[in-house]
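Sample entry (134 residues):
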Amino acid sequence: MTDLPEFYFRIRENGAAVYRVSAENRQRRIEMTEIAVVNIRNGNIRPHGAHVLTEEEQEVIAVWMEERSALLARRDLDDIHRAIDHLNLTAHWAQSRASDAELEEVTDQLLLAMHDLRTVLVRKKADRIGQPDP
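Predicted structure, serialized as tokens:
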């Protein structure tokens, strides 16, 4: 049997449920005991039931939370780069292949979304320009 990690994180909407993994029993079955629930958004670590988190468990959870937050931030930025690609592909589609009916179906929603995005980007750009250099 391959070496199993000591901890398993079952991803949830805002974090994860944390399990201690063990195969050290007579049947060599994998046992997963829930030890905590973590929330990445607010940094909350809540022990499961009567379990008291050890210093090692707290450290492992803190490292996971940092790594997970960094991964989610990279994914967010990657999603934005994909959105830019999609905007370019949408412009090409609208110019070269879209029928009048298809354009009628999406034009208002696209214009509102692009106007909203432009408004936010211009405001944020103005805020950055107005800030002194660090």
